[in-house]
Structure formats: structure tokens, C-alpha cells
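Hi R.,

Here's the chain you asked about this morning:
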Amino acid sequence: MTLAATFITFPLVQPVAIFLLVLVIILFSPLVFNALKIPHIVGMIIAGVAIGPHGLNLLARDASFEIFGQVGILYLMFLAAVEIDMYNLRQNARKGLIFGILTFCIPMAAGIICSVWAFGRSWLSAALIASMYASHTLISYPIISRFGLQNRKSAVIAVSATIVAVMLALIVLAEVVAVKTSGRFSWIGIGRLGLLIAVYVLATGITFPWLTRWFFRKVSDPVTQFIYVLAMVLTASLLAQLIGLEAILGAFYAGLVLNRFIPSRSALMNRIEFVGNAIFIPYFLIGVGMLIDVNVVFGGLTVARTAVIMATTALACKWLAAFAAQKIFGMTSTGRRLMFGLTSGKAAATIAAVMVGFKYGLIDEDLMNGAVVMILICSAVASIVTEQSAKRLRMTITESEISPDSQGSVRTARQLVAVANPVTAEGIMKLAILMRHPSNRLPVTALFVRSNDDPSTRAVGRSALAEAAKAMVSADIPIKDVERYDINIVSGIINVAKEQDATDIVIGLHRKSNIVDSFYGSLIDGLLGATNKMVIMSRCFIPVNTVRSLMVVVPPKAEYETGFRDWVGRLGNLASQLGTRVNFLAAPATIPYIQGVIQAEGYNIRHHYEELRTWDDFLIFSNLIVEDDLMVVVGARRTSISWDADLAQLPPFLGKYFKRQNLAVIYPAQFGAEVEMPAPIDPLSQRPSTAPSPILLSLQRVRGLYASLRLELRRHRRQRQARRNR
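And the predicted structure, written out as C-alpha cells:
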């Protein structure tokens, strides 16, 4: 056969032609179906029906669709887990469990009764059909992600419930097959599966974070990091299959484990979302459409009747479960519709049940065809309902965000990042990104200041600006890169900050070059004296996304500073993005005000407080800091309210005892426009969940003692080495 003949023979067999046709569908489906007011997810499935073997037969459902489709559903489940805010997940885990049981039990019970009554099936066959109703796939999740609603209460509950419902449905499917093949129900099999699941969860939950933290510290190449994450997802999926679970459960669990290492506003997350939404997930949706043979619906009334009964039962039961959850949790009707839309789609687990049932003779061809048509109907309804409810919820949220009460520098920071070294520029920019509020779309100004015309200096500065721009562009944040010649570096930074109306100045922490040099250096000392804007200095020896916790030291009377609300907001954004706990060491009078800002701005973070009564408490607190923590010290200028004599000893103390620790120093904005004092929080009204468990406190004390012991041993080694050198 000639090459030309392969392009006009259908179904297509030429790889380039196949991939081109798929890309054309991915390109034009959203454009065409959005114009028709049809969600593009439904458009992908319909396109798959049209070009598949049961439609125009342009493409066969070959190995490429099997592979890319399988990876697509794994990618979809992984994205659903990795985009969830872990704090929201913990807060709503109980509700997710309850809704998961509801959205499994109601369809399961109704499905068994309906199958026995309407189809005249046996109880075993009815249980398998009911498992199709009980399971669901987050096929409409990309809509939630597109509207930025993945951390809304209703979405988190629905995603959590998905895992519960799918796992229970797959257990039912496995036991149905066991009864069919062996003739009896086995409790031993369920116990064995439960034990394997426990071992899997513990082994994966311990090894994956350790490997990821080590890998991200050793490898900074973004492409290699992306490949590593994809390999971890597939590894978790494969291990799940080996113990008898579906691969989608392993992919979801991998997303939960890797969640904290992939901040939502990071280049890695952008790449993960881009590849999934551009290739893998569309391939999966098109592949689902290629399974559907619409002709069977018109071939006889039996299949049409079966499909209508199955689709109606499945959708009605899922709606009833969402309605019950709405009443139990006191949610709005929009939240109910969103949960119904997310939990009514059918794909992966349902297809598996159909194939298994037909293989073992538990369902006939009419039921199989009816189930496949049910998948199309449920997926279409899920996508339409999810899109409508997501639009309504997004409009409500946007109205609250643009209200006068929601404006402020906490959400609209204008950052100026001064860079001078290509090696550290990317790390400083990433820290600045993570301190921004997710709704902040203002550009970041990257600045390099030079005070001479030395070609090598200009080359280094432009290289640093290029690295800074690369970090911002990959995170999809606008950037202004400025190279400025000025009489000195401090005046250059100050002038550009005034020109750009910057609220924050972010700069790398100075490293001492000789014995008479100060901890901050002349540049930072001059900068602090020349501006009243917030100045943030950082020095991280590890990638910021591998930090375990933030240890924040706050001076007394910090709540009276103009920039108090702003720096608390920056740390709230940072902790929220990293999914880490924040441990504050602050005066008893200051703690309620910190809590007030966190509550008023809606930061969903874990925060704990220790009282700072004397600066000796700082010495004890500093012993808890290990190499995986980021210590944040809130400073004060000499003319500020929170300044006292003890703060004068802070720079030399940091320089002496924190040479190897990850460190950030924040000098809040001083004077400037009047700002409203944050409302303090009554300590007695705080939920006990904000405090760590006694076990965690004990572990922190052990870590602190271990860190102190290491410091003492290191000091003794240096003393012995000094004696030998003499």
C-alpha cells in the first residue's frame, strides 16, 4: 500500500494522520460547542462518538487511545487531589466521608431494587448493576478547575466522597466476581484487601514524601521534575492495581501525598495542568465517546428502555444523595447542584463494571449497550449541571471579592524584587510568587541596579533578570524587568519602588564577606533607613516548596505597626501555598491580633502559638528549628513602635547562630496611610484544632533537643580542630 493510500483509508492507520485528527478535535471542539452553549467536555465525548468505529469510522480505538485514555483518567484523578487545599480537605474530611457513604448507599439500594423489578435480574446481577449507579468519575472536574473553585467546600466534599464511593463500589464488584466464580462470599478476602490497603497507604505515604523532598533538592530542572511527578503517579497507580484496587485510587492518593510539594502558583503546577488539559484528559474523553454506539438505541425499544431506566435511576439517586447532604451540612442550593454535577458523571469504574459483568455473564448485550448509553447521558448531564452551578458560584464569589471591604494591600501587593545573582534570582522570585494572594494579577517588577559600566557586571545582572523572568513567566504571572543605572544601589531600588508604587521590596539576604562586615550589610542597612515600605529579605538553602513548617518570631507591640496586617497576610499566603503549619512566637497581647488577621482574610492554614515573654523564649524556640524549617523573623526599625533594645542584638544573634538555617527577615511598612487595626480574636473562642496534638508537641521537643545536641557536638568538633591547628 502506498503512503498516499494510508491517508485516505478509514479508519486511519498512519500515526501522523491519527494524531493530527485528534489535535484538530481538541482544538475545535471547545470553539464549536461553546458557541452552541454546550460544555466542551460533552463536545469531546460527542466528537469521539462521531469519529469512532460506531460513527463515521475515521479512527479505530487502538492502543494509543487505550494508553492515552488510561493515563488521562489517572491524570484527572491526580489533578483533583493535587489542586485541593489540604487544610480544606482536613476540615471537610468527615463531611466527605458522610457524603461518600450517602452517594454510594442510596444508588446501591435503589439500584438493586430497580434491577430486580425492572429487568428481572438475579440478586447477584442486580448488585453488579447497582455498583454502576453507585460509582462515579470526576469527569466534569476540569470545569471546576477552570473556574478556580477546586477549594470550595462543596467541591472538596464531592472530591473526597468520590474516593469513598468508588472504593466501596469496586469492593462490591470484586465480591460479586468472587461469588460468581467460587460460589460463596469471603470475609477473608475483604480482610486481606483491607490489610493490603493499610500497608499501601503507610508505605506510599512515608516513602513518596521522603523521595520527593530529596529529589526536588537535588534536581531543579523543571522538565525532569515533571517527569518525576508523572512517574510517581503511575507508580502509585500500578501498586494500587497490584493489591487489587483500581489505578484511579492510586493516582488520587499520589496527588494527596505530593500535594504540598506542588504549590498551586508554581511553574511545576502550570506544566502539570497544561499537559493534562491539552493532551491526556481530551484523549480520555474522546476515547469514552468512541465506546458509545448510539445506533443500538435506535435499533430496538429494549435498549432504549434499558438506557432510560438506568440513566434515570443513576441520576435520581445521585441527586437524592446531594440533596440529603445539603440538608445535613446546611449548604446552599448552588453547592448541592455542584456536588450533584461532580458525582453524577460516569466513566472509569462504570466501564470496568460493564466489562466485568459481560465477561462473567452477569449482564446481557442489551444491558451492556444500555449501560454505555447511560455513561453518555450521565456525562452530559454532569457537565451541563457543573458548568451552570460553577458559573453561578463564581459570580457570587467575584461579587464579594470586588466589594469595597475586600480591597487592600493584603490582596493587591505590588512587589519589587531586586536581583543581583543568577544563582539566587529564581529562588527569590518563587518566594515572592508564593507570598502573593491568588487573586493578585498585578505585575511583579524584577530590578537589577548597577552603579558602573563594567561589562561583566551588566552581563551578570541581565542573566539574573532572565532567570527572574523565567520563573514568573512559567508561573503565568506578568513581570516588568528593569535594568537601572544609578548613583548607588540603594537609591536605584528606592527610585524604582517609587516609580512603580511598590508596596513590598523583596531582596536576597546579605552574606558576610569579611569579619568586620555586618549581618545585613551596608546595602540593606541603607535600604531600611531610606524607605518605610515593607522589606523582605530571604535566604533559603533548600527549595522553598520543600519547607516543612514556618517558625515566625514576632516582637511585642507588632500589632501597632502600619504594615502588621500586610506581613501576616504574606505569611498566610505562603503557608497556604506550601500547605505547611505556621508556629508563631509572639507576645500574649499580639497573638489575638494575628488570629484576627488570619480569620478576617480567610487563610485556611494550620497555626499554633507560643508566648514570647522574654527574649530568652526566643532562644528556646530557636532550638526547635531544623534544616527543613523556614525561620521568619519580624524586625522593627529604630523609629517604630515595636522597637526595643533587645532588637538591636537581633542581627548579630542571627549571624552567629543561624548561618545554616533557612531564614527570612521582614521589616513591616512603617507610617504611611492609616490602616484599620485588625480585630482581635478571643483566645477562648479558638477551636482546639489549631493547636498541634500532644504527640506532635513531643516530637517537636525531641527535634529541638536533637538539634541542640548537634549544635553542641559541632561546636566541640570545631574547638578540637582549632586546638589541633594551634
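The longest strand covers residues 444-450.

Let me know if you need anything else.
M.
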